[in-house]
Amino acid sequence: MDRSWKPNVTVAALIERDGRFLMVEEETEDGLRFNQPAGHLEEGESLVQATIRETLEETAHRFVPEYLVGVYQWPRPQGDITYLRFAFGGRVGEEVPGFELDDGIVRAVWMSPEEIRATADRHRSPLIVQCVDDWLSGRRYDLDLLRHYD
């Protein structure tokens, strides 16, 4: 058994306001793509802390996670990487004036579920629509489901 393989742990924020979701448009090796505010778990941080950090870095909005929406495993079709995504829903504050977005992030944009589905050919992964659908169907799990030990 090969013990060197590990999935890439990522977090994502599902932020809905007035029927629209906060998304990011970003430069990738495949061109401009849409994603939820999302990124990799960094050493020493909890999943919740990672989601708060990534949302601020990619959208300039402060985020307060309130629920776990789901855990998603996605092996990229290229077969080189498997992502393990923890998606959180919660409240977001107003944009932080003057905050500089992460390199590669073109803009933060509010999109309706219909707009998100209509741009599926420009998504970073199929998890985007699945996470939105799960949120809209009412999937909400208490954050005390997660345990973080320092």
UniProtKB/TrEMBL annotation:
Gene3D superfamilies: Nucleoside Triphosphate Pyrophosphohydrolase
Complex and partners: Monomer.
EC number: 3.6.1.-
GO molecular function ontology, one term from the record: nucleoside diphosphate phosphatase activity
Protein's UniProt name: Phosphatase NudJ
Entry-linked Pfam families: NUDIX
Cofactor(s) demanded: Mg(2+)
Keywords: Hydrolase, Magnesium
SUPFAM superfamilies the record matches: Nudix (SSF55811)
InterPro entries: NUDIX_hydrolase-like_dom_sf (IPR015797), NUDIX_hydrolase_dom (IPR000086), NudJ (IPR033713)
Family named by the database record: Belongs to the Nudix hydrolase family. NudJ subfamily.
Domain Nudix hydrolase, first and last residues per copy: 4-133
Species name: Parazoarcus communis
